[in-house]
Amino acid sequence: MSGIGMILIYALQIYSYMVIAYILMSWFPNARETSIGQMLGQIVEPFLEPFRKIIPPLGMIDISPIVAILALHFARMGVAAIF
What we know:
This protein is mainly α.
C-alpha cells in the first residue's frame, strides 16, 4: 500500500477515535465545556450534523454517532481497496 493510502487510513482512524472521545465526553457533566471538549466539538460536530439530520434521536439515545463511525469504517475500507 502506498504512503498516501496509509496516511489516509491513519487519519480516518484518528478521526474515529476523536468521534468516540467526543461521544464519551457527553457522559460526564461539563466535559464538553472544557477547552478540549470545545476543540473536539469544532472538529467533530460538522461531521456528525448531517447524520443527526437524517437519523432523529430515539428518546435520550442518539444513534447517529454510531452510524457516523460506521461510515468512517467503510471509508477506511474503501481507501484500503483503492490503494
